[in-house]
Specification:
disordered C terminus; five-stranded antiparallel beta sheet; 3 domains; single chain; alpha+beta; Neuraminidase; 17 helices; 31% strand; Potassium Channel Kv1.1, Chain A
Length: 582
Amino acid sequence: MAAVDEPHASAVCPRSYQDESYLHGFLGTVGDLQKAGVLQDVVLEVEGRRFPCHRLVLSAASPYFRAMFTSDMAESRQKTVVLQGLDANLFWEILSYIYSGILHVSLDKVQPLYQAADLLQLDYARDTCSSYMAMNVDRSTCVDLYKFADLFSVDIVSRVCLQYIAKHFTEVASSAEFCSLSVNQLTEIISHDELDVKEETTVWEAVVRWVLHSREDRLHHLPSILLHIRFNLLTSYNMAAILDHPLVREDPGRSVIRNVVKETANVNKKRRVGMDTLEMALLFGDRTSEMLWVNSGEGKYIRCDYNISPYTGTVTSDNDIYVLADISRTKFGLFKYNHVGNKWDRKSSVRKVPEDQSNDTLFPNNLMEIDGYLFYLSFTWSAVVLRKYNQHTNKWHNCSTPQNDDRFDPKVAVSCNQHIFLFTRTDIHCYNPRADQWCKKTPSDHSDKMYNAVAIGTEIFSTDILFDNTLVYNTEEDTWLELPGWLNTDQGIENITLFALQSKLHAVVDGWIFSSSDRIKQVQQVFVFERCEGVWRELSVLPGRWYMYAPMFPVARMYLPYLNTCHANTHGTENPEGAHDV
């Protein structure tokens, strides 16, 4: 009888399987062989220190060693190979990475570690070092890392350093490190449109400081440097002062310098980004994607639609604006404002509290910044949740929470003086982020009246819902002060939101007034508190209608050319609408 083929037999396909445990175990075994000194067939010598190794492992890890051991180079036949241009201690770190896959990086050794990884063509180690440097650019490191990045053409680090230096130019230019820049590095920096300076004299003063640091060696560079100063942005008085400066007046080549100054004064160069800034509050409300940038004192209102619906926001000490906006029923998206692009870039997401959002929705969510970290604080009748966001790792971490014996009954929360203060009807809870600990402050009857709050310096300002009291809590002295409110019996108040603009307390009052025809008219008025006089003064009525149930208004220095001319849009969305003055 003939065999009959099974119908399903032809449907069986070959498959490949990958043993993950074998892959991890293999690397571990190789590392054990290295530690035990077994099967090693080459010795690498660095600064007189000998490192027995395996040619096969080195060749697999590094194209540098692969070329060395598989070509006709003399090293391929030698049992001891001397490596030049490497530090012995650092090479031990590199060798540890080759055999374990783990790279230990710190700020004090990241630069030589990058050089070693670059020389040995270890792409992952080199790229990890460059990413680490880019993440650690700050006031104390920006100049040093910029010089290193410029020397070794590490573009990602150079770009981040230039952005940081431009953003903090006045502070960086006054540092001792600034004077160690080369002439090319100096001119690259002062050529940037994005220097955050109010006046071009700041750039001139930085150049003078750099030249005087080593006058004999640097004075001859002055004519070429002056080409990058925008003399057309200076007043005639400042121009005359520069021409009369000792560096120009006493220099033998002063005629050349004077000619450069006069010629560049007629060149119409762009204004620096910091010359057109204005501190503005960002107003947004629930269930709308439209936002309003406001400075009522200057009569400035700019309306934008970004296609996100922020719920709360904050501004960092570096003038970075972050908001939490709805992305789903259970999650907020964390968005960072891109000043140059006038758009919001999504950075992360965090689960809402309570996560189902079916109950306890009366309590606001709060976004705050302390010491470079963002904190998301929310509370219900029964619990408080505090989470910390690390911008470098793009991760959220749970923090400790205050103890409560019974129903929590919270009022408001605000960050002030590097701490978070949470006010309930009966208590003041204070959070220290550096210690991750909560404590209680002196309770006060005033806290029961708090409706909204904002910090100015080391004080927390608040009003009650009737707007007839202005409360001030001094966080350093743990004391309260009661100041006058705004008394107007002809107006009803539905909501009050406080914000601090140009170091003054402001309020947006959402309410209604009775007109002469006994008709009710809804208005949203902006007030400023004149503390010396102890009075609230009305500034303006907001254009349009803004629905403010539980908002927090971030205040930042805005770059008006970008805000007015760029498309208002979120990262990745289509059909943006432009920003426009109202």
